[in-house]
Structures are given as C-alpha cells and as structure tokens.
Amino acid sequence: MTVSYDPLLDTDPDAPYALYERFRRECPVYFNEERNLWALFLYEDVIATLPDRKRFSNHWQDDDPERPGHGGAAGWRGGEDHDRAGVELIEDRLQMYAGSRPKIFFESDPPRHAELRAVIKHPFTPRQVQRLESDFRTRAVELLAERAGGAGFDVSTDFAWPLVMDAVFDMIGIPAGDRPWVTKTLERIDRVANDEEADHDLRTFLEALTNERIGHQRDDLVSAMAQAPRELVPIGDAVDFCLDFLTGSVGSASSMIANGVRALAEHPDQLPVLRKLDPQGMRLAVEEFLRYDSPVHVLPRVAHQGVEFHGVRIAVGSQIWVVLASANRDERVFTDPDRLDLRRVGATRHVAFGNGIHFCVGAPLTRLAMRVALPLLVATLPEDDAGSVLGSWNASRAS
Questions:
Q1: pLDDT tens, residue by residue, 105-154
Q2: Of 16, 64, 108, 360, which has the fewest beta carbons less than 10 angstroms from its beta carbon?
Q3: Rounded to an integer, what distance in angstroms lies between the CA atom of residue 224 and that of residue 237?
Q4: DSSP for 75-121, written as a single string
C-alpha cells in the first residue's frame, strides 16, 4: 500500500503517540498483513525482546518472501481503519531499514558483534566523549551568539546540526580541510533521499581516508577501523560503518536537541525547572527528554524460535518491530507518560537507545549534546516571555 503517514510533515505531531497508546490498549501484539511483520508496543515486551540473544536475532533482512512467519497471523487484526493507521505509521518508521545496505555493526549478532564492538570501543567510551565537552560548549556559545534570536530561528539548521557535526567530525577523524566538502555532501544526502551520487562521493572519500590511516594512525574512529584485521573488517565494511555513524549520529543527536526544544515549548512550566537544575539534575533531565520523545521509534528483530506474547504465537523466522517510542510512553511503567517532567523519578528506565548488547554506541554523544545545548538555549530566552519566544522558534520534528 502507499505510505501516507509522515511524522516529519504530519500536522498533528502527537499523532504517533496517540496511535501507540491505542495499540497498547487494544492490540499490544500486532500483525501487519501488508508487510507480514509483527509489532510489539508494551514496555514489558520490548524490554524482554531487546537483550534476548537466544530467541531474537538482530540480523534483519527482508529478502526472503518464503521465510517462516510470512503466512497468516494468530493475533487480533483490528478494524479496517485501525489496521490502515497502524500500517501507515509503522511502515513509515521502517523505511530507513527497507532496502538499505547491510549495516555491519547494527545488524550483526554474536560473536561477530562482540569482535566489532571491541574494534570501535575506544572512540566511543563516555570518557572519550567527555573530552569533547569543552570544545562542544565553546562551539555552542559561538553558534548562539551568531544565530540565536527571535522568530525564525531554526534550532536544527542554525544550531543543532552544525554543533553536532563538528563533534562527530572530531570523533571520526575528518581532516579540517575536508570538512566543508563533507558537510555539503551530507546536506545533499539529507535533502534528497537516495542521492546515489552524493553517497558514492562520500564513500570514495572515506575509503581513501581509511586506506591513508592504515599507515598513519590517529586517535579516531577511521583509524580504529583501518587498523582492524582485514578478515574481520574489510575496507568496504569499515567505510559502511563510518558512513552509518556519520549520518546516524549527527541525525540522532541534533534531532534530540530539536525534540527537547519542542518538548519545552509544549510544557513551558518546565522552563523554570530546567533553569534551576544542577549538573546532576540536568543529566537526569536528559533521560526524561529521551523518554518523552525518542530519537528512534522502532528497531527490527527476527525470531530465532517460536515465541508467545500475551497468548499470541509468533512463528520462528518471523520479523518483529520493537516499538521503543511506545514503550517509553507505557502508562504501566511511567506515571502520566504524555507529560514532560524533568524531575521524574524513574526516567532512566527508558529504552530510547535500545537495551542489551546492541545499546546505541552513539548514546554518550547524544547525551552530551543535550546536556550542553539545552541549558544554553534556554539561557538565551527572556524569563518573562520565555514560552512565547521558544514557541516562535522552528524545532521541526526529526525523530
């Protein structure tokens, strides 16, 4: 069917969460007949699935129409309107996976996953990311001095995107002289879906950089991939991972800054709360922002064996959508889940970055970006009219 639901363009930004709530209430284990895929919406099911390596695989490829689980479903289907809404929503969320190239890290299972994680461990430790904080804060202040203002200020393009881009360039190891070109090429990819020419140009550049770092190692991601044994990480896989991290981390961290601004605009009572937070309080507030509006809504899994959720059987080989964003608004776990509460107790239980061995390697960067950027953004607002000024900023939905 034709996908018509678009979370980036929909006039009602709360539509995904309202629909998730309906699924949790009426159909927590959902079968999509159009896609022959299952979806799990409850926190208890999401948290049980993500770390379970015995029953679920992370290697998700929709290339076998005859795989087990492609047949009928044993669960409730819902009415026609409900089915259509669910199909449109979740198909849109999964477009990023459909037909994409294999992601060597994201789609790997043990023992290869552990071997790959060991290769890239050093550049992604919280301590390594923390080393970026001083430069990150300085750059944020500079950007706000240049661009922050009243109506028309675009949180993503004027602030979050260039702020995060600089940090990611440092982590990956992009030379300073090449950064303007890489930025323009990424903008081409961002503006035009499936821009094959831009993708090819960026791959060629990263391949040359990886080969150069084989003999000239530095303390960055490209060097870590370049120095890995070729039988473990061929050059093509190294390029894939660097490109995935480059596009994914910039998108995730910058979108969460914009999501945080939008959440504050929707809950202006939290502005004075944020202004008064100490560093530890801000760390906990970041977890609430992540729970409230997650950077990634859905992760895919494949059933290694037949499983059952709430009396519904899912056959071995079936593909499953684990809806993180729904779990993070599950009223069984989070009191008043549709409300942003920066002092919420238990916000750290969210699954915005997944759970288990596939916990997002870019999580420390996203947390740092939010912890630094959001207080600085709020500090530019007049205390007597903060809500209306904040509401005039463009913080378009990017999750």
A1: 455 555 555 555 555 665 556 666 677 888 889 999 999 988 776 567 88
A2: 64
A3: 13
A4: S----HHHHHHHHHHHHHHTTTTTTPPP-TTTT--TTHHHHHHHHHT
Before 295, cis peptide (omega within 30)? no
What dihedral do alpha carbons 135, 138, 142, 147 form, nearest 10°?
Answer: 80
Q: Give me the residue label for tokens 């990311």.
A: 129
Question: What's the whole-model pTM score?
Answer: 0.80
| Residue 92, CA distances (Å) to 2, 15, 347 in order | 10, 13, 27
Which domains does the chain show, CATH number per domain? 15-392 (1.10.630.10)
Residue-level length of the chain: 399
Amino acid at 345: V
CA 319, 304, 42, 338: dihedral to nearest 10 degrees?
-60
Summarize pLDDT for 319-369 with one digit per residue, the tens: 998 999 999 999 999 999 999 999 999 999 999 988 755 556 778 889 999
**How many angstroms separate the Cα of 18 from the Cα of each of 21, 30, 92, 186, 328?**
5, 16, 16, 33, 13
* Structure tokens, 369: 């970006």
Closest by alpha carbon to 322, among 364, 353, 289, 365?
353
Tokens 């000239």, located at residue: 216
